[in-house]
Amino acid sequence: MPVTKLVRVQEKGQVTIPAAVRRSFGLKRGDLVAVVETADGIFITPRETIAAESLDQIGEALRQQGVSLDELIASGRVERSKLIAEHYGIPVEDQGD
Length: 97
Hints:
Order of helices and strands: HEEHH
Strand content: 5-15%
Number of helices: 3
Largest sheet: 2 strands, antiparallel
Radius of gyration: 22 Å
Strand order of the largest sheet: 1-2
Structural class: alpha+beta
Number of strands: 2
Distance between the termini: 55 Å
């Protein structure tokens, strides 16, 4: 069971994450954390963790669709070229469409 630590909310709404918790998560001055309201309270998570989890979810979705990251990037380039040509009237070199 997690240990509860009490911290005081300061004048500008700031709270100090206890040193042991910061060390446990490798947090240092200037690092970003995400703050999310939940039904039970406030959830704080290191920003890098959220990015890694999101990238994992994206990778899994691509695998389920049978699409590689390289294929996704290539299709994005083709679509971007089409949009540029359509919107600005600028012909873009054929990229294997």
